[in-house]
Design goal:
The complex is a heterodimer of chains A (about 270) and B (about 325). With about 270 residues, chain A is of the alpha/beta class. Chain A contains 9 helices and 10 strands. In chain A, α6 crosses α7 and α7 packs parallel to α9. Helix content of chain B is about 35%, strand content about 25%. The two termini of chain B are about 35 Å apart. Classes of the chains: A alpha/beta (about 270), B alpha/beta (about 325).
């Protein structure tokens, strides 16, 4: 199962997911962090800098997180409570844009997509083709250092528009609007959780390699060679490797020779 | 197709409307330039391949390029053009996954500009020029959406001095079968033994279906080409390829085949590295390899054995004039 993390800015944005996913508060380094069996929630605080710093810390310290979804409130011209996913996220300050590779439409057929423009301060200069938020670009900027754009999504709900100004925004109103994001976000969470993760197989091989290199000293280059040989072995045979025997060998060269010998006995055929 | 990115410059292009009409439920996202999406960082080719998006764009600048040396089927002047980037199929050995960050399909809708460039290129030579369309994509696979073949055949029917190769693994041959065969067009199929099709050419038509398509095209008078490229190493190589040659020779009139080419698996070093990163468990990567002149391929002796075996079988069915090795 893949681990997926929701990233929000405010307590009012987090509450609905803490309840829906039965997450528990976990003491972590400076940010509000919640955990369940398969899901995590990181509450970063307001603004793109905090969002970027928290996202970066999270993904650096928890490399097993395979996808993140930034969820929160936004301003736009749509009716309040309209839920949207971002097909483009732009940092207004730098002009940098990101294009999340969106999940299949069948997951959330009614969810429209939009551009999200991340501002440094609140604005009421609403635009028809864009919604405003204050974190999405920070999350994207940090998360793309660890994850690919198919594993970073952004879902926003309209909390203020020309008819309902940001001044009338309250915690209770935000929680009500955020309820709308729960069904599509849960769909995405389940999809990511069940997704065949190409990196899972790779981490199995990496873990096997680690078990060997802990016992037998390998240089960086020898470790790469070892990983390649383990992948080759894996692609040619379903036989389980005798790791304990490999751990008793005296050097990286001996490990390599052993694996090469094993591989030379396995034919490469297509049937 | 769930998402269609559309360059602002081509929003009102007729072909854009035609393609979008095929996918009325797709999300449409306006973009400035296709490269903003296609070349952006942090993309995962393997994950995108599961649910690729379509990008409709204008191709500016140079649209017709000279082919690399050795890429020809007997012509003196050889060019390629790419009306789209990327391929609907998912062949493990494909160089496109090393070349591009993205698995999304880019379709250039300004086909008239391509044809104008082809005409301009023709004027440089008095001898016939060859134009290859299946270099960065499969020529036919997305044809029901792009209608590229109809446009292309229409244009080439008016060009006496131009020859066209459509290279494909696709069996979408309806637009060809509904037309009278054109003497300046070769429809070339990439062929591999069925076990390799199943193991490494994901999402492609079976060998039998490709042979059926070749037969149908040949029966209607189209010139056909056979591309045994890339040949992949296996310990049962001779059985696999021997059986495939028998299937092909039994179904097709080899004396009427326009051209046959043969190439051993090879990839630039960087592309090979990317392939390992994307698919470390791919079976074809378990074969012994060597680096020669920046290209990753099999050891020389292995290559020689593979080539000699194939040549010995091919020489029973074709003349030397029909044969063009790939380098």
């Amino acid at each position: 199962m893949n681990l997926v993390c929701i990233i929000t800015a405010l307590p009012a944005e987090s509450r609905v997911f803490i309840d829906a996913l039965r997450l528990r508060h976990v003491q972590d380094c400076g940010w509000r962090f919640y955990a369940g069996d398969h899901y995590r929630l990181l509450q970063t605080g307001l603004g793109k800098l905090k969002a970027a710093a928290a996202t970066s810390t999270l993904l650096h310290s928890q490399p097993d997180i395979s996808a993140v979804i930034n969820v929160g409130v936004a301003g736009g011209t749509q009716p309040t409570g309209t839920c949207l996913q971002a097909h483009k996220i732009t940092d207004e300050g730098t002009g940098t844009s990101w294009y999340p590779h969106l999940p299949p439409k069948r997951l959330t057929p009614d969810l429209q997509s939009t551009e999200v423009l991340t501002l440094d301060r609140i604005s009421d200069q609403y635009r028809t083709d864009t919604v405003f938020d204050m974190e999405a670009a920070g999350v994207m900027s940090a998360a793309t250092a660890y994850l690919s754009t198919d594993a970073i999504q952004c879902v926003k709900v309209i909390s203020d528009n020309p008819d309902s100004s940001v001044q009338s925004f309250s915690k209770q109103v935000a929680i009500e609007h955020m309820q709308r994001t729960v069904p599509p976000v849960l769909e995405m969470l389940r999809w990511y959780e069940q997704m065949e993760n190409s990196s899972a197989r790779q981490s199995e091989i990496s873990s096997l390699a680690r078990q060997i290199t802990v016992e037998v000293r390998h240089t960086m280059s020898e470790s790469h060679q070892l990983t390649r040989l383990l992948h080759r072995y894996n692609s040619l045979t379903n036989n389980k490797l005798d790791v304990q025997q490999l751990q008793t060998l005296k050097s990286a060269t001996a490990v390599r020779q052993y694996l090469e010998q094993q591989l030379s006995d396995v034919p490469l055929t297509y049937e | 197709m769930d998402t269609i990115y559309i360059e602002k410059d081509v929003v009102s292009h007729g072909k854009t409307a035609q393609i979008c009409a095929r996918y009325p439920k797709a999300r449409q996202v306006l973009i400035d330039r296709y490269s903003d999406v296609f070349n952006s960082r942090a993309q995962n080719f393997r994950e995108q391949k599961k649910n690729p998006s379509l990008i409709l764009a204008n191709k500016p600048g140079k649209r017709v390029h000279e082919t690399p040396p050795g890429y020809h089927i007997g012509g003196q002047h050889n060019y390629y053009f790419s009306h789209m980037l990327n391929c609907v199929y998912d062949c493990r050995y494909c160089f496109l996954q090393g070349m591009y960050q993205s698995a999304n399909y880019v379709v250039f809708v300004n086909t008239d500009d391509f044809f104008q460039d082809i005409k301009d290129t023709l004027e440089k030579h008095t001898e016939p020029s060859w134009f290859f369309s299946g270099y960065d994509c499969d020529s036919l696979a997305l044809d029901p959406i792009t209608h590229f073949v109809d446009d292309c055949l229409e244009q080439f029917s008016k060009l006496d001095n131009a020859c066209l190769e459509l290279r494909t693994k696709s069996t979408q041959i309806r637009p060809l079968l509904k037309r009278v065969a054109q003497p300046n067009v070769v429809v070339a199929y990439s062929l591999s033994p069925q076990a390799i099709v199943a193991g490494e050419e994901h999402g492609t038509p079976s060998l039998a279906k490709r042979i059926e398509a070749l037969k149908a095209l040949q029966a209607q008078g189209w010139k056909i080409g056979l591309r045994f490229d890339p040949l992949l190493y296996a310990d049962n190589f001779e059985n696999l390829y021997g059986e495939m040659f028998e299937q092909v020779f039994a179904a097709i009139d080899m004396s009427r085949v326009h051209s046959v080419s043969l190439g051993i698996f090879r990839l630039p070093k960087g592309f090979h590295k990317q392939l390992i990163r994307l698919y470390p468990d791919a079976r074809l990567l378990a074969a012994p390899i060597q680096l020669h002149d920046g290209l990753v391929s099999y050891p020389e002796q292995t290559e020689r054995d593979m080539r000699e075996f194939c040549m010995s079988r091919l020489s029973t069915a074709i003349n030397l004039e029909q044969f063009f090795p790939c380098s």
